[in-house]
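Margin note: ligand = iron/sulfur cluster.
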Amino acid sequence: MSNGFFGKVLWIDLTKEEFTVEILPEEIYRKYLGGYGLASKLIYDHMPKKTDPLSSESILGFFPGLLTGSIAPLTGRCMVAGKSPLTGTWGDASVGGYIGAEIKKCGFDGILIKGMAQNPKYVAIIDNTKEVLDASSLWGKDTSETEDKLKSTHNNVNIISIGPSGENLSLISGIVHDKHRVAARSGLGAVMGSKKLKAIVLKGNDKVNVANSESLLEHTKAYNSGVKNDQSGAMFLYHTLGLSCLNVSAGLSGDTPIKNWGGNGPQDFPVERLNKISAAEINKYKLRDYGCFSCSVQCGAIMKVPEANIEETHIPEYETCAAFGNMLLNDDLISLFKLNDICNRSGLDTISVGGMVAFAIECFENGLINKSDTNGLELNWGNSDAIFKLVENMIKREGFGDILADGPIIATKKIGKNSEKYAMHSLGQPLPMHDPKFFNSMGRTYAFEPTPGRHTASSLDHFITGVLPRNNFIKEFTLPKRYRKPGDDRYEAMKMCAGLHQSLNSLGMCLFTYWFQTYPFLESIKAVTGWDVNIDEIIKIGLRIQNLRQAFTLREGIDLANNTLPGRVVGDPPFEEGPNRGKTVDYKADFLGYCAKMGWNPENAYPLKETLKELELDFVIKDLY
Ligand code: SF4
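Resulting structure:
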């Protein structure tokens, strides 16, 4: 066994109920690390282009990061990857908790699912046994019930499962671990549902070998003591309040989209309403802290909400609060807890659900639909009872909820009447809760990333965010100075961030590390793997991963280069009032500059042949040219 990884992945063919171990050479880890880097290589190689994502040939991967399973701080993230049935592009979604570390404990660097079961099944990989087992008694159960039932059969296991929404092939469904940690985006819950795979149950005893455990311990201790002593910074806020610490400030600054992206915070959802869903109010319901494997920040929390009859649930995070709060002008805090809880139980992506409800409300308010379409629901802004019932309908695929459950492209086709103008999405992915008019580099990533419409893509703003003190979170990583203005420095910075970002994800690192203290980055990689890599090599590996993700999406025939964002999202025409008044995001100029630096053809977003050769992606050339 090598250091940091096991050198093998597990293939599970559900049609044949067969398990196959594939041995991988160290070279592949040097080139793609782990996480979605390694997943992109294996899925690109094994899944033919234009595969129906909900077919037997479709492949779904579960990949912990390269550092996951070690004690390196905040490296417990796991990526779920495959082809998105929602956008038709490369799809991925990150999940925290303990599932990534448990895959490593089972002795694998990733699990790949192919084929399709005839009847509901779950896979159990427990203490070196591997079985495909009957899940008919679990089918129809929500993710919390599923975990409880499986844990009553199998001791000390970690579980990842789908709820009714994944089973019903909702294209905005995700995959859930620890009852409320969700690999939410890209609609990958439907891929798992199409395979009739209810859950994966894992328990192992293997340990990740570490090249230099003394060095790793020293750096980890120093980082964690910084977390402990941070009494005023981002880590303290995230630990004590969770992500909802952003609710009020982002709601007023212009960061959070308001009223389906058509309003402005201070006027439409002012501070007295925002305060009702503030982190202080939310945390009154906190029972205890929760956090992912190897994380000393612990930004999650377990809550009890008697007013909603909820004995135990997870804290709603910023994106969820914004999607069900600001976007819908809903200040009913208890409804946020309830909506978060039922979406997690059903396995729905809360960002997409909030976006679809906002779309429905705007259609209703503008007379495109009426009560006869909505089963009698008065879909007005802020009507939390109607919102809750509509989401229940989405989960059950009843009435108008069924129309919304497959995302904006299918919904607008079914509704017609020029309803596209109220659908705020990128290639079918409902947009996240950060406004490019505020964080302007997100315009490019929302429109042109291989996984479009994602706030967790490689936006420059992740690195330079202006609302928090700028931390030099990786000391070897320095951006060119004039990155805020159009020009060479900005586009070079975008390229550097794109590279580093893909590597961080593929190492299993939590993206919140951007806002925390200086991270022992190269030191941790070296201590775990023994590799003496420098920052330029890490960026280059990330660029290789980014180009391969891009090639996957392009190979599917997706016209990324000509994608556009809705006018109100990018201020075209500009807003006349509010914190984002007068702003128009020139995301296409950013894209052109980024293409030039990346070595891509700006007309079709294809990596040039020289670029692919330089990154040792020669095997892609035959697919694109
Ligand atoms: S900061 Fe939060 S999301 Fe990130 S690893 Fe820690 S607990 Fe998980």
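DSSP finds 27 helices and 19 strands in the chain.
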